[in-house]
Amino acid sequence: VSNWYQPGPEKTKETTSLPPGKTKCQKKHVGADASFTYKRVLPDGSTEERVFTSHYKPLPRICLKGVKKEEKKDEEEDKKEKNNKKTTQKVNTSSSF
Fold first, then answer.
1. N or C: which end of the chain has fewer CB within 10 A?
2. Domain of 74?
3. How many angstroms separate the first and last alpha carbons of the chain?
């Protein structure tokens, strides 16, 4: 195992699938690069080696926090409104042929 990667800051997501005020969290996990060498002896006596490598992403502690359905809906509407403002562009419909 080599190249250890520390997880980022804790993340909290609001959800209506939990009772309001209840919090459920998963543990954080450190990431790393890992490898091992697989060796085989062939019938003719020669050897064959393959190196297998894996990358494991770090995962921060992620918590779900229960909120009332109305609170969640208001937040989603705010996000949609912000996105609409970002994506709305002025379009020139006049033609100059």
1. C
2. 2-85
3. 66
pLDDT digits 0-9 by tens, 24-65: 999 999 999 999 999 999 999 999 999 999 999 999 999 999
Query: 38: which DSSP letter?
Result: E
Looking up tokens 């609409």 gives 84
Its pTM stands at 0.53
Residue of 16, 22, 11, 18 lying closest to 74 (CA atoms):
16
Task: Return the SS3 of 21.
Answer: coil
The number of distinct structural domains making up the chain is 1
CATH of the domain at 80: 2.20.230
Q: Which helix (H) or strand (E) holds 34?
A: strand 31-41
Q: Does residue 54 belong to any structural domain of this protein?
A: yes
